[in-house]
Amino acid sequence: MEDKNRINIEEIEETVQSIVENYTGIHVNDRELNLLDDTLGIPVVDWLYVIQEIERRFQVNLAEMIAIETFEFFTVKGIAEKIREEG
To answer: Quick one: 3 exposed, middle or buried, by C-beta within 10 A (0-12, 13-18, 19+)?
Structure first.
């Protein structure tokens, strides 16, 4: 488990990028690109594993954040900012 209170936003972003890559095989270079963008070609089912791992790693309820927010926040940067806010 990552201690979100002890790491900076860049480290959270790097961890989110790493999780996305580990579960999808796709490295997201643009941290502001919407992760649901069709150009990435990530199957919806892969997001279940990505979300579960982010929740486990940072002890946050990402599924709840997704339900509350608009889809625009679903970027590496947006997810990292929400994780940091929860800390």
So the answer is: exposed
